[in-house]
Amino acid sequence: MQRQSHLLTLPHNPFFCFPESVGNYWEQPQHYTLREAGSLGNFNIHYVVSGKGFVEWDGEVHTLEAGEAVLYFPLQRQHYYSSKDDPWDIRWVHFYGHSLKDYMIERGFHKSQLWTIRNRSAWETAHEELLAEAETHRMLRPSRLSALTYAILSVFVEQAIPLSGSKSVSTASRIAELLPLMQEKAAQPFILEYWAGQAGVSPHYFCKLFRSVMEMTPMDFITRCRLQMAKQWLLERKDANIGQIAADAGYPSVSYFNKRFMEHEGMTPTVYRQLYGV
After folding, report:
1. pLDDT tens digits, residue range 131-167?
2. Which one of 64, 122, 156, 238 has the minimum C-beta count within 10 Å?
């Protein structure tokens, strides 16, 4: 079975990214694709929802299972196909844009074709929204198509880690699962041993794993959460002074709070409140 929508390629595309086609195949054990190098001029992401399939890359056959994806750059050879015994349910999107190649190379996505998506539901939701838009409105709302394509790409850029030689994906997923709770409790004193215990690893490995998944230290993440709360409170809690906001956000020292705020926002909390307050 399949759902798919093929859209007109815009010769003078005004958008950063735009879909050429988007679809979903399932219960198709015969699904097989071979495109020789130079035949397709757009990016291609094929993501496995369930089941499994195979990708031939760099002279080897690689198995793709649920939560994993293959990414092709324009003009690359493409060879992938479903398992006949356990056919994949696969979501795919072909997209293009004038500056996309540089954007993807700068972020290292040319170094691998095979990826694992940490937050599967986020990518699947973004893909479904694009597919529904294309099925319902076709090309009637091009800016919406572009925005939804960018949403898919953003989730991929944020959530994809290389499949080959990757860290333990199950362990890395524990970090992603902890993030909402870490954000919720960010104003409380940060105790590394506690969060490492929640992930089931040593404090040293927790820091190493967190950095590999989030590209920042655990304390950097906590700092971002605290400052985000403080920014919100500075505008919503008009009667609270800076010291109270700082303390509630986890900074007993007002001077240290001012320093951290200044590093991120380029202005003091007082100036921010004056500029953005209604």
Report:
1. 999 999 999 999 999 999 999 999 999 989 888 644 4
2. 238
Range list for CATH 1.10.10.60 in the chain: 167-278
What residues have CB less than 8 Å from 265, skipping those under 6 apart? Answer: 227, 231, 272
Residue 97 near residue 15 (C-beta atoms within 8 A): yes
* Residue type present at position 211: R
DSSP 190: P
Q: What letter does residue 51 receive in the DSSP assignment?
A: S
pLDDT in tens, 188-208: 999 999 999 998 889 999 998
User: What's the CATH number for 167-278?
Assistant: 1.10.10.60
| Rounded-to-integer distance, Cα 27 and Cα 86, Å | 9
Fold of 2-162: Jelly Rolls (2.60.120)
Question: Residue 84, class by beta-carbon neighbours within 10 Å (0-12 exposed, 13-18 middle, 19+ buried)?
Answer: exposed
In sequence order, the 6+-apart residues with CB closer than 8 A to the CB of 219 are 190
Q: How many CB atoms lie within 10 A of CB 10?
A: 14
